UniProtKB/TrEMBL annotation:
The keyword Transport applies. Belongs to the EXO70 family. Residues 245-607 form the Exocyst complex subunit Exo70 C-terminal domain. It comes from the Eukaryota. Residues 159-170 have a biased composition (Acidic residues). Residues 11-28, 142-158, 615-626 have a biased composition (Low complexity). This is Exocyst subunit Exo70 family protein. Residues 1-28, 142-170, 615-634 are annotated as: Disordered. The keyword Nucleotidyltransferase does not apply. InterPro entries: Cullin_repeat-like_dom_sf, Exo70, Exo70_C. One of its GO terms (biological process) is protein transport. Keywords: Exocytosis, Protein transport, Transport. Component of the exocyst complex.
Length: 634
């Protein structure tokens, strides 16, 4: 007997088939008769009967003997006959198994093995045809949407039942299964037959070649390509950004459809062989999965860690983190450990990239050396860009919390205790992400404090601080920073804004208020009243002229400052005007001192803080740019 033929005899059958031969327990007992054991002749007769039944069924579909068998698909032409073919092969394999244990030198084994080889060639051909002809029905998207890993077409797992049961199963399957499920059931039939007959290697070879080509093609169509470290390092950011966008779309499709569908298909086709199922799936999916999960690591390791790139790193981190339950489920076996390890490595490297980029952002704030005061004491571009950056970072608070939790809490040691707007104690430590955001905003405010010193007029310096801190507060209120920093932080800094505004009013408009008497309704001589008017006119004109260029960008802060200034000036001036303007009208040489009626003062105050020039920092190569902003397309 050929050595290859012996392998089919080393597999124990799953089921006995009483329709073809009796199991050993039903054979006649030789001890009851006074002659030599007859069991070998019994098994010889069983094999004779099996060969008699099997030969016409198998030879009919021998592709080397008939033209019809060469060009026709057994499973496509007649599913009932296909099931009968499988049943015949299974019975032949069982008969060979029993005979080899009793008479391994029987010539009938050679004849049976020749038939088995013909049958296996037929099944290899059928297996290949089903996989090839049903690429559309077995594409991962179809499989993943129509099946689940736990749903197995068990109706086809055994064909040792009575014909009536098989027909009933056929009818049931025809009602509920579509083309993809039918193809999977056929593949499972063939796979189980070939594996139990010792032809697992041939079966798996066909399956892996065809299915791996489909997975690899799917990865290619998703835009994934193998890039070396040097290629990524030399790549322009605009080009790399496009590849990252492609990856963000690819990971969703690859995990939810491509690998998920392939996992389902492998589970169903090789449901009866756990080790084969796992190894087969991993060999098919590993190359594509490693290519997919290595890309983020390569980007994180070999691209410049500049602040504007952090959002793409966070997008990729989110992509892996959001799909981690599916990744963990699909690649759950020990043989898939390297794939999950690669995905985790990418998460680690992306986390390191993010922390480094945030460090670069902090350094950029500290190194900003622009000394040109913002026109009108308005909002500095450093403030706008930095807060836009931080508010965008806060949109990733879930993944940032994980990333920053792994970093040493160095920021906590630098922050003054009074700066915290949240509980931070050894018993209840503040989240690392809250500490980091609070620290970065403090770094920004300290830098703004140094820039305020470039204003020659102190009142303008306070207005600059009020404008910029108000922008910070509003940005926190209207973004996820609010939840990271807390209401206490907001309340405290809103109070600081009002304090800056109050200092601006005192220094910018104090002389105007001081020009009016503390008791404006008290009677004074016309000459004294004229002197007060002249002092007021001079102080008001000077203050108005100096403050006319100032801007307050936030309308709430602008209204607050206007109302506060008007309340302090208008009350005193109106009372003084009402008490003295009539007596001044009778003195021609003194009436000229009354330059403003109360409504004129109010009108001139209402014109303030819109500015005559646009707010913003003077251009500087060291000023943050819009590059810090999150990419619009994610």
């Amino acid at each position: 007997m050929p050595r290859k033929g012996m392998r089919s005899l080393c597999f124990s059958p799953k089921h006995s088939s009483s329709s073809t031969f009796f199991p050993p327990s039903h054979s006649p007992s030789p001890s009851r008769f006074g002659f030599s054991p007859a069991r070998p002749s019994f098994y010889d007769s069983v094999m004779d009967r099996t060969l008699e039944l099997a030969e016409p069924v198998i030879m009919k579909w021998n592709p080397e003997t008939t033209a019809l068998a060469r060009v026709t698909s057994l499973f496509y032409e007649n599913r009932r006959e296909a099931k009968e073919f499988i049943k015949t092969v299974n019975n032949l394999q069982k008969a060979m198994h029993y005979l080899v244990t009793e008479n391994s030198s029987s010539e009938k084994l050679i004849r049976a093995q020749n038939l088995m080889q013909i049958a296996m060639k037929r099944l290899q051909k059928e297996f290949y045809q089903i996989l090839s002809m049903n690429r559309a029905h077995l594409d991962p998207e179809s499989v993943s949407t129509r099946s689940s890993r736990t749903s197995v077409a068990s109706s086809y797992s055994s064909y040792d039942d009575e014909d009536d049961d098989a027909e009933a199963a056929d009818e049931s399957i025809a009602e509920v299964e579509d083309a993809s499920m039918a193809a999977m059931a056929d593949l499972r039939l063939i796979a189980e037959c070939m594996i139990s007959s010792g032809y697992a290697k041939e079966c798996l070879k066909i399956y892996k070649i065809i299915r791996k080509s489909i997975v690899d093609e799917g990865i290619y169509k998703l835009g994934m390509e193998k890039l070396s470290s040097s290629q990524i390092h030399k790549m322009d950011w605009e080009v790399l950004d496009l590849k990252i966008k492609s990856w963000l779309s690819a990971i969703r499709t690859a995990v939810q459809t491509l690998f998920h569908g392939e996992r389902i298909l492998s589970d169903q086709v090789f449901a009866a062989a756990d080790s084969i199922r796992e190894s087969c799936f991993i060999e098919i999916a590993k190359e594509g999965a490693m290519l997919l999960f290595q890309f983020p690591e390569n980007v994180a390791k070999h691209s410049k860690k500049s602040p504007e790139k952090v959002f793409r790193a966070l997008d990729m981190y989110t992509g892996i983190a959001n799909h981690w339950p599916e990744i963990d489920s699909i690649f759950s076996s020990e043989s898939a450990a390297s794939i999950k390890s690669q995905a985790l490595t990418s998460l680690v490297k992306l986390g390191e990239f993010t922390r480094a980029a945030m460090g670069e952002f902090e350094a950029a704030i500290q190194k900003n050396s622009s000394k040109s005061p913002v026109a009108g004491a308005g909002t500095h571009f450093l403030t706008i860009e930095a807060m836009d950056y931080l508010s965008n970072l806060a949109d990733y608070s879930n993944v940032l919390a994980d990333i920053l939790a792994d970093s040493p809490p160095s920021a906590k040691k630098k922050l003054p205790e009074t700066y915290f707007g949240f509980s931070d104690s050894e018993e209840s430590p503040a989240p690392a992400i809250s500490l980091k955001m609070a620290w970065l905003i403090l770094v920004l405010l300290c830098k703004l404090d140094t820039k305020a010193k470039y204003y020659k007029d102190v009142s303008s310096a306070y207005l600059f601080l009020a404008n910029n801190l108000q922008y910070v507060v509003v940005k926190v209120q209207t973004s996820n920073l609010k939840y990271l920093l807390g209401e206490e932080w907001l309340t405290k800094h809103e109070g600081i804004v009002k304090q800056f505004a109050s200092n601006y009013e005192r220094l910018g408009w104090g002389q105007v208020i001081d020009a009016l008497p503390a008791d404006p309704a008290a009677a004074v001589a016309p000459a004294r009243a004229a002197e007060i008017y002249r002092n007021f006119n001079s102080a008001f004109d000077q203050a108005h002229r100096k403050q006319a260029h100032c801007v307050v960008d936030d309308h709430k802060l602008r209204d607050h400052i206007k109302v506060s200034i008007a309340r302090k000036i208008m009350r005193l001036y109106r009372e003084f005007y009402n008490a003295n303007h009539e007596k001044m009208a009778g003195e021609r040489n003194l009436a000229v001192a009354v330059r403003y009626a109360p409504k004129d003062v109010r009108h001139r105050l209402s014109e303030l803080f819109f500015g005559h020039v646009e707010s913003g920092a003077s251009s500087s190569s060291e000023s943050p740019s819009s590059d810090y902003r999150r990419p619009r397309s994610r």
